[in-house]
């Protein structure tokens, strides 16, 4: 069996995500996502949010929301011991595989000095379109980037070519996950 497994969130993932948040961001002195936000992800947006496990233990997560044919990827976080591993790859495979074929655009925000995230967004086909100087309040700017429909088509072709997603005639709207169904394995 593969070491990394990504699946959609379940309601009972709330405590796990809160612990990951504290470990990844709270202990580093950075702001954490609020409890309400995490609860929304686990209960109402679980079909577009993913948890990756390494040998059965939580290794990271990806949170996103959908509105119509737009996707907003808000957080991709991986524990330090799994950074640079296939954990990120497995999360991306699950996420991208869930939106290819129906999404018209995907939006990201990132701090200017987060070069790894900016490179990842660019690799996915995102273009940086603006900087909002006070995105998280005065003095907290964020770069906003977007993958458009043409970039999605190119991304899909690349992912299909290397076998990261199945070749499909047409992908449908996001499917309801049955109690945290497996979305990707690596």
From TrEMBL:
Taxonomy, superkingdom: Bacteria
Domain N-acetyltransferase: 4-158
InterPro entries: Acyl_CoA_acyltransferase, GNAT_dom
GO terms, molecular function: acyltransferase activity, transferring groups other than amino-acyl groups
Record's protein name: Predicted acetyltransferase
């Amino acid at each position: 069996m593969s070491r990394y497994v990504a699946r959609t969130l379940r309601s009972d993932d709330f405590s796990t995500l809160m612990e990951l948040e504290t470990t990844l961001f709270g202990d580093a002195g950075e702001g954490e996502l609020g409890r309400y936000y995490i609860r929304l992800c686990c209960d109402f947006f679980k079909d577009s949010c993913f948890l990756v496990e390494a040998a059965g233990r939580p290794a990271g997560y990806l949170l996103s929301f959908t509105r119509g044919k737009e996707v907003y990827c808000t957080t991709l976080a991986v524990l330090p011991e799994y950074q640079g591993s296939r954990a990120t790859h497995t999360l991306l495979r699950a996420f991208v595989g869930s939106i290819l074929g129906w999404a018209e655009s995907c939006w990201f925000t990132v701090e200017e000095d987060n070069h790894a995230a900016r490179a990842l967004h660019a690799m996915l086909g995102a273009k940086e379109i603006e900087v909002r100087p006070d995105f998280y309040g005065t003095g907290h700017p964020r770069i906003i980037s977007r993958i458009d429909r043409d970039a999605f088509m190119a991304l899909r072709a690349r992912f299909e070519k290397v076998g990261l997603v199945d070749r499909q005639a047409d992908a449908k709207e996001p499917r309801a996950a049955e109690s945290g169904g497996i979305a990707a394995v690596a």
